[in-house]
Write a structure and sequence with these properties.
The complex is a heterodimer of chains A (83) and B (354). Chain A has 83 residues and is an all-alpha fold. Chain A has helices spanning 2-13, 15-20, 34-70, 76-82. Chain A has a domain at 31-83. Chain B is an all-alpha fold and 354 residues long. Chain B has a domain at 35-215 and 229-265: Cytochrome Bc1 Complex, Chain C. Chain B has helices at residues 4-13, 16-25, 38-58, 68-77, 82-109, 118-141, 145-159, 165-173, 180-212, 230-255, 281-289, 299-315, 317-320, 322-325, 331-353, and strands at residues 27-29, 227-229, 293-294, 297-298. In chain B, strands 1-2 form a two-stranded antiparallel sheet. A two-stranded antiparallel ribbon of chain B has the order 3-4. In chain B, helix 4 packs across helix 5 (82-109) and helix 7 (145-159) packs antiparallel against helix 8 (165-173). The chains are: A mainly alpha (83), B mainly alpha (354).
């Protein structure tokens, strides 16, 4: 009986240590500080704004090229020489 | 930005006028399927992105079993923007393989493989194989327990092939099992052998596109299609697509950076519910369909043989589809193409959800 009690006591003695054991931490693959995170997200928004801006410029340029092509001229340089 | 002096400098030394004439003379047909033409440009852009980010990562990566995992953790946690470039490389690879599959199935269903473009199909097909091996070799470089187990399964699967299997397995692993030797080999493949092969094949593929011009679907072959100049019209459209794509890759890299698992331990049991990368899921799921023993034969070997036959069938499709080579419609091969696509999608989805 004494042995059984001793065994149970020894087993229970480990419980606080098990509770105290932290779950293995995952490796951080993204900046953890809120300040850095804010900068990253802010830059992402600026990046998309720049992309949208460039897309608008490309669209305008393409329209202009198509307009010149419809006139039957090869490009703007030729158009300048025709003037 | 006109730079007339720079133009003159080149013009005096090289035949730029001929190049300009070629670029201006190149036209693309416009029709309801011309959207698929952009997938080729998307792949080119993503490969360029992979080369740039890969070179940056190679500056800090240590290809040794003892230090590989640690060097990646250092890239991600200590280097300025290291996490971003690693994530960009990861997502660039995923999207490149996705774009390659889209390009493959678009070419398959639009019968772009038909005479005289057979070599384009073969070179593109080999490029997909290379891209998948790029993915597998890059995955092992992480040297975490999941990558280790996935490569063990993949190389083991290749070993199930009759006759050549044992040699392929040993060649890939550099020994009996996946070890540090495998890591060295996969690193050599990933940063030297495969990029060189990719560049050569891509140059060939692009040159062949220039020789043959863009393929027009059979249903539109006899119609007079409006033409669009490649330069500058299509170049600008390509640029717009690439910009959007860059935005998508950067967003994915920022919002969903890939995890890093625990360091690989060759003696430890493989982690539970292990799954390969998404582009291997259809193969993985197919292998799961087969029992271990079929009429006394190894089920895995039969499965690998059938998969290899299926892939070989797709590879030699230009030889089989005689009708489309003659310029006639071939609904049977359209149905076969749809079956391939449906099988790939369904099996990938089942593999992902299960």
């Amino acid at each position: 009986m004494k042995r059984v009690i001793f065994f149970l006591w020894a087993s229970l003695l480990n419980v606080p240590f098990l509770w105290g054991q932290e779950k293995e931490k995952a490796i951080e693959v993204f900046p953890s500080t809120p300040y850095y995170q804010y900068i990253v997200y802010e830059n992402l928004v600026i990046f998309w704004a720049a992309i949208i801006g460039l897309l608008i410029i490309i669209r305008m340029k393409l329209k202009e090229i198509e307009r010149v092509q419809k006139l039957g001229l090869e490009d703007e340089e030729n158009m300048a020489s025709h003037k | 930005m006109n730079c007339p002096r720079l133009k003159d400098w080149f013009g005096e030394r090289y035949e730029t006028a001929a190049l300009k004439k070629f670029a201006r003379g190149k036209v693309l047909p416009t029709h309801r399927y011309d959207l698929w033409y952009y997938t080729g440009g998307i792949i080119l852009f993503l490969f360029a992105l992979q080369f740039i980010t890969g070179m940056l990562l190679a500056l800090y990566y240590v290809p040794h079993a003892e230090f590989a995992h640690k060097s990646i953790i250092e890239i991600v946690t200590k280097l300025n923007m290291g996490w971003f470039f690693r994530s960009l490389h990861h997502w660039g690879a995923q999207l490149a393989i996705l774009a390659l599959f889209v390009h493959l199935f678009a070419s398959l269903l639009l019968k772009s493989y038909r005479k005289p473009r057979e070599l384009l199909w073969y070179s593109g097909f080999v490029l997909i194989g290379i891209a998948i091996f790029f993915g597998l070799s890059g995955y092992l470089l992480l040297w975490d327990e999941r990558a280790f187990a996935a490569v063990r399964v993949a190389t083991g699967g290749a070993g199930a092939l009759p006759i050549l299997g044992g040699f392929i397995k040993a060649f890939l692993r550099g020994g009996i099992d996946v070890t540090g030797e495998t890591l060295t080999r996969f690193y050599a493949f990933h940063v030297a052998i495969l990029p060189l092969m990719t560049i050569l094949l891509m140059v060939l593929h692009v040159l062949l596109v220039q020789v043959h011009g863009m393929s027009v679907p059979l249903s539109l072959k006899d119609k007079t299609l409006p033409q669009e100049p490649f330069f500058p019209n299509v170049v600008y459209k390509d640029l717009a697509v690439w910009l959007v794509l860059l935005g998508i890759v950067v967003t994915l890299a920022t919002l969903l950076p890939p995890e890093i698992g625990r360091k690989a331990d060759p003696l430890a049991a493989p982690p539970e519910d292990i799954k390969p990368e998404w582009y291997f899921l259809f193969l993985f799921q197919t292998l799961k369909l087969f029992p271990g023993d079929i009429f006394g034969l190894n089920g895995e070997t039969i499965a690998i043989l059938l998969i290899s036959l299926g892939i070989l069938g797709l590879f030699i499709l230009p030889l089989l589809d005689k009708k489309s080579s003659r310029g006639e419609r071939s609904p049977l091969f359209t149905a076969i193409g749809i079956c391939y696509l449906a099988y790939f999608l369904v099996m990938t989805l089942i593999g992902y959800l299960s």
